[in-house]
Design brief:
The complex is a heterodimer of chains A (149) and B (618).
Chain A lengths: L1 H10 L7 H12 L4 H11 L3 H10 L11 E6 L2 H5 L2 H12 L12 E6 L11 E3 L2 E3 L7 H6 L3
Parallel strand pairs in A: 1-2
Antiparallel strand pairs in A: 1-3, 3-4
Chain B lengths: L6 H14 L6 E5 L2 H4 L3 H14 L7 E5 L11 E4 L3 E3 L7 H11 L8 E2 L6 E2 L6 H4 L17 H6 L4 H9 L2 H11 L11 H10 L6 E6 L8 H8 L1 H15 L3 E6 L4 H17 L14 E6 L9 H8 L23 E5 H13 L1 H5 L9 E8 L5 E6 L4 H8 L9 E6 L5 E4 L9 H6 L8 E6 L4 H15 L5 H19 L6 H15 L3 H4 L2 H21 L13 E3 L19 E2 L8 E2 L9 H5 L5 E3 L1
Parallel strand pairs in B: 1-2, 7-8, 7-10, 8-9, 11-15
Antiparallel strand pairs in B: 1-3, 3-4, 5-6, 11-12, 13-14, 13-15, 16-19, 17-18
Helix pairs in contact in B: 7-11, 7-14, 8-9, 8-11, 10-11, 10-12, 11-14, 18-19, 18-22, 19-20, 20-22
The chains are: A alpha+beta (149), B alpha/beta (618).
């Protein structure tokens, strides 16, 4: 892990100001922020753990616990909300047997909500991993989830 | 590419690019903006490439992957040049026909043209479509004329000419005067005069100064910054370079939220191209002026739209705002003078420099100059990005451009300004939209989100939605915002559950007023707007919830019941299987289904499925 973290930090020329971007890249690598990776960042950037931990917990994008193979993001931006996005989340919770921000026991899915992915015209919008699924409704949820292993 | 060392060389390069371009050569411009991605446009793009190769047309037809032209509702969007033929709802299977009919024979494919649902009229050219016709697309117009990853395309449409003009013919002070005279106000939401901000940063003490581009666009329901950054990143960069030159800054940052990966990618490419050409870096165009730009990603915190919080985040710290006793133009990033402007503000700069303040001045209203991009979304027929001159009325935007309300429903209100803004009722539809008018009616311009709601939207629920959003996003640093939002959310939740008390409305108003007066930053200061405007214009809905335990719009779960409207139900049984609690029983074909109220969890699945509108909500 140490070499990978080193490579990421090097990419940003050890610029402390780029801490958020560095953590983003680590998360892309491991799907979450493992404790050891944060310790490595502390060492390499020479910043206190309180700062790294503070940033890692302040920003919504970061997770300190492992996440599922597929990350579901249901957009709850206003445009999606007025078109019934909350029903879509409700149905997801029902189908997966978890609440939002949770991961299924088999680590298949993590369910999250986001406050706008910028596809407002196609709401309600669901992103699974990098793929966009527009004009969702609660009755389309089950068949969509079935497509993911 | 060869590094340019004078403005003259830049003009020479532009000339040679334009001369090399064959204007009569057909070009298929396909939107690969994020909206169209959801329609599968990457596959369509590949299909076009394959089809062109199959027909051995590689040298005769250009395929251009462009940014978002705005009409997202009708994706995937396609424009064929030089004629400017506009095709919408394009699918994979249409590709061979477009090549064989339109490209090779020049025939129009009727079914792909836009048909106005209100009049039935068909339009061949983009410019004639009613959605576009009423717009004045100063910033967005170039999006489908260029490939955002090609600096040559940008140069061909006159890119960086404004910068060359500023560099060779204008002193920094003159540039600032020009921007001041133009009347440009910040498009991030507050509407602060841009020229004045530049001037105070220029005059601030310190050798090192920064310019920052805010692309953190956290407003739910707004995506114009995303569209500009993805579709025309050079226009934003050019604005930043002009600004840096005028202010005397040598380093700039572009702060982009991480939910916008394509924007990050495209601006990173643009920076690299500009560096290679000598438009960024040391000694730009041989002038001695040097400027670098770095890209930084946000971590998904709405409060980082607040300038001081954004700058804290840029320093690698928690994105908390601070009180602005000292302006960021004096002490911002790393305590040095910093000028922060929104994406749209930066993109306006090259136009003002090139065409002059007087030209810009003529567009808009007395207090708000230029155009504004709105994301017209929600319960409206033509959703997408619209760019209109300031001062156009809400009615013109919603009905003439937006085509009216979806599904023949009744208009209720327009929400502008996101969580910092408010709801504007039908009685104010003729309001000319500009910074001051929106503030006057209790809302805000914000970043330009314009969410249309209809009779099926509950205003108390919407207030709860925004307060819930803000409560989650508040940084927790100051007490009025931290506690006030929490209490407001509790009260609103009680009301939507039917546990509201008579004095709740007054209590909400009092908390809202405290938030407005005592919060540290604008997140808390404007948080009262959604609550106050819903109370001001839709008090009867609050009263119905509190006094009658009734949700007139049929939204609040605890107060409604679903039922089958027997006369409308054809007994098709489509809703039976998907019902998660097996609350619906199939009887026979042509006999209405039966809904068991005890099992119903009000998830709304049956409502979504039923095209006959046979599921009633009360």
């Amino acid at each position: 892990m140490a070499t990978k973290i080193q490579a990421i930090v090097d990419r940003y020329e050890s610029d402390k100001g780029q801490l958020v971007s560095i953590l983003q890249d680590i998360q892309t690598e491991y799907y979450y922020l493992p404790k050891e990776s944060l310790e490595e960042v502390v060492k390499l950037l020479n910043v206190p753990m309180s700062q790294v931990y503070g940033v890692a917990t302040f920003f919504k994008a970061f997770s300190l616990t492992p996440r599922g193979r597929h990350l579901i993001k249901v957009c709850l931006g206003t445009a999606c909300y007025v078109r019934g996005a909350n029903r879509v989340v409700d149905k997801m919770e029902l189908d997966l047997g978890i609440k939002r921000k949770e991961t299924t026991k088999d680590l298949r899915f993590t369910l999250e909500t986001v406050n706008c992915v910028g596809c407002c015209a196609l709401g309600p919008m669901v992103m699974i991993d990098d793929k966009y699924h527009g004009q969702m409704s609660s009755d389309k949820v089950s068949s969509l989830l079935a497509k993911y292993e | 590419m060869v590094r340019l060392s004078s403005p003259q060389q830049l003009e020479g390069l532009r000339k040679s690019i334009v001369e090399r371009k064959d204007r009569s050569k057909p070009c298929i411009a396909l939107c690969v903006g994020t909206g169209c991605l959801a329609y599968g446009c990457t596959d369509i793009l590949t299909a076009f490439k394959n089809e062109v190769e199959k027909n051995r047309l590689q040298d005769k037809v250009d395929i251009r992957a462009t940014g978002c032209p705005g009409f997202c509702e009708r994706g995937a969007l396609l424009t064929i040049y030089p004629q400017g033929i506009f095709y919408q709802r394009v699918k994979m299977e249409d590709v061979p026909e477009i090549i064989s009919e339109t490209i090779l024979k020049g025939n129009i494919i009727e079914r792909l043209l836009y048909t106005d649902p209100n009049t039935g009229e068909r339009y061949t050219k983009e410019a004639d479509v009613p959605f576009y016709k009423r717009q004045q697309r100063l910033l967005l117009d170039s999006n489908n004329k260029i490939d955002p990853t090609s600096i040559e395309d940008y140069l061909a449409i006159g890119g960086y000419a404004a910068f060359a003009k500023a560099l060779s013919h204008m002193k920094p002070e003159q540039i600032i005067q020009e921007i001041k005279r133009s009347g440009l106000r910040g498009r991030g939401g507050g509407g602060f005069p841009t020229g004045a901000k530049w001037e105070s940063t220029r005059e601030a003490h310190g050798d090192i100064k920064y310019v920052i581009c805010n692309c953190d666009e956290g407003d739910p329901g707004a995506y114009m910054d995303r569209s500009l950054m993805e579709g025309n990143p050079h226009s934003v960069l050019e604005g930043m370079i002009i600004g840096a030159y005028a202010i005397g800054a040598n380093l700039g940052y572009v702060y982009i939220r991480h939910e916008y990966p394509m924007a990050v990618e495209n601006v990173t490419i643009a920076i690299k191209q500009a560096e290679e050409l000598g438009l960024l870096g040391e000694d730009i165009l041989g002038s001695g002026f040097g400027f670098k730009v770095k890209v930084s990603r946000g971590g998904g915190a709405f409060v980082c739209g607040e300038s001081t919080a954004l700058m804290a985040s840029l320093e690698g710290k928690v994105g908390e705002p601070r009180a602005k006793y000292i302006h960021t133009s004096e002490k911002g990033l790393y305590n040095r003078p910093s000028d922060l402007n929104n994406v749209e503000t930066w993109a306006n700069i090259p136009h003002i420099i090139l065409k002059g303040a007087d030209w810009f001045n003529k567009i808009g209203t007395k207090g708000s100059k230029g155009t504004k991009i709105f994301s017209l979304v929600g319960k409206v027929k033509n959703t997408g990005l619209v760019e209109v001159p300031m001062g156009m009325t809400l009615r013109e935007i919603v009905y003439d451009i937006g085509g009216g309300i979806l599904g023949g429903n009744k208009f209720k209100a327009v929400q502008t300004g996101g969580p910092s803004g408010g709801f504007i009722p039908e009685s104010l539809l003729d309001l000319p939209v500009d910074f001051d008018e929106l503030t006057r009616v209790g809302s805000m311009m914000g970043s330009g989100a314009m969410i249309v709601t209809d009779e099926n939207t509950c205003m108390v629920d919407m207030a709860k939605y925004f307060v819930g959003f803000l409560q989650e996003e508040a940084c927790g640093k100051c007490l009025p915002c931290r506690e006030g939002l929490k209490r407001m959310l509790e009260i609103l939740t009680d009301i939507t559950r039917g546990d509201g008390r008579k004095e709740d409305i007054e209590l909400l108003e009092r908390i809202a007023a405290t938030l407005k007066d005592a919060s540290l930053c604008a997140l808390g200061g404007t948080a009262a707007n959604p609550v106050m405007t819903t109370i001001r214009y839709f008090r009867d809905e609050y009263e119905a919830h509190i006094n009658e335990r009734r949700c007139p719009a049929g939204v609040c779960k605890e107060l409604i019941t679903y039922s089958i409207i027997d006369e409308k139900c054809p007994g098709c049984g489509l809703c039976v299987e998907p019902c998660p609690t097996k609350a619906i029983t199939f009887v026979a074909k042509k006999k209405p289904v039966i809904l068991n109220q005890k099992l119903c969890i009000k998830c709304g699945t049956c409502c979504d499925i039923c095209k006959m509108k046979a599921v009633g909500v009360k």
